[in-house]
Design goal:
CATH class of one domain: Mainly Alpha
Structural class: mainly alpha
Number of helices: 3
CATH topology of one domain: Histone, subunit A
Order of helices and strands: HHHEE
Distance between the termini: 66 Å
CATH architecture of one domain: Orthogonal Bundle
Length: 97
């Protein structure tokens, strides 16, 4: 199957692209190469090969989760510039309606 210049012009019209004559010829060659490459991949794909998402198997490289004690309220607020009612106090950014 070969992509023709007329087919590229039709696709350009559908995509609302203004292509010149030299661009139509250039894209016809490129699209034909792309379609040929996809056709070759489809020929290679066999039904006895399971689909994969990665070429190599993935392994988890993260450490295991460990339960650790967290900071208490007083310790967390100790470095805050301002605290109020056991919370961080920050400047108001929204007006109340």
């Amino acid at each position: 199957m070969s992509i023709t210049r007329d087919e590229v012009a039709h696709l350009a019209r559908l995509s609302r692209l203004a292509l010149g004559d030299d661009e139509l010829d250039h894209f016809a060659v490129q699209l034909d190469a792309i379609v040929s490459a996809v056709a070759r991949v489809q020929e290679v794909a066999a039904e006895d090969i399971p689909p994969t998402t990665h070429a190599l198997p993935l392994t988890n490289v993260f450490r295991a989760d460990e339960v650790r004690p967290s900071l208490g309220n007083a310790e967390a607020l100790s470095g805050a510039p301002a605290a109020e009612a056991e919370r961080f106090r920050v400047p108001r950014i929204l007006e109340e309606d």
